[in-house]
Write a structure and sequence with these properties.
With 203 residues, the chain is mainly β. Helix content is 0%, strand content 55%. The strands form 6 sheets. Strands 3-4-5-6 form a 4-stranded antiparallel β-sheet, with no helix packed on it. It is globular. The two termini are 19 Å apart. The model has no long low-confidence stretch (mean pLDDT 94).
């Protein structure tokens, strides 16, 4: 878990243990491919990496704020900067990947297939696969704030006012959630076993 002033905590057994900080900037998102490959991103273009022993920090000065990160492998990491830029780490260096003007704040991918989904404002979803980014049909005007999937043809997106969308590999459809709360986090291990969290802390 990451947060204010570069705070990092790691779950060990049943306890959260604070880690040594490598930055004082606020960290907003964290993702990893293993216990020895964890990345976190945040304010002032800050990126920090945990190799299993230590956290090290770097900064991309062209970015004011990273809002999301997804790690597929040590040689495939994606991050969202300033609500429109997708950055990619290939195991050697961070490089600007593509710009989706004013539309993306989150990212999720499937490590096995290499497909990646960037999503955000006004229902925008962009899919990376086959060497190109392609937009999915827009079926809502709400902001999408979280995504989770069990494969490239089974991905769920949630967001403001209880919006929930499902991608089956061919079609993007809306699903009922029976809530009007803003959903900001989503996790699950199977299509019928997913939990969304609202900004108010409700599940």
């Amino acid at each position: 878990a990451v947060g204010h002033a570069g705070e990092v905590a790691r779950l060990q057994g049943s306890r959260w243990i604070r880690q040594r900080r490598s930055t004082r900037e606020q960290l907003l998102a964290v993702s990893g491919s293993s216990a020895g490959d964890v990345w976190a991103v945040g304010e002032a273009g800050t990126i920090v990496h945990f190799d299993g022993e230590d956290w090290t920090a770097t900064r991309i000065r062209a970015v004011k704020k990273f809002s999301a990160v997804w790690v597929g492998s040590p040689a495939s990491v994606y991050a969202i900067g300033d609500g429109e830029d997708v950055w990619h780490y290939d195991g050697q260096a961070w490089r600007h990947h593509v710009k989706h003007p004013g539309s993306v704040i989150g990212i999720w991918g499937d490590a096995a297939s290499g497909e990646v989904f960037a999503y955000g404002y006004s229902g925008a979803i962009h899919r990376w696969g086959g060497g190109a980014w392609k937009p999915l049909p827009v079926v809502t005007s709400e902001t999408l704030r979280a995504a989770c999937g069990v494969g490239p043809s089974d991905v769920t997106f949630v967001g403001d006012h209880g919006v929930c969308l499902h991608w089956d590999g061919e079609t993007l459809t809306s699903r009922p959630t029976h809530t009007s709360l803003n959903l900001t986090a989503l996790a699950g291990t199977a299509p019928d076993h997913q939990v969304a969290v609202a900004r108010t802390g409700e599940l």
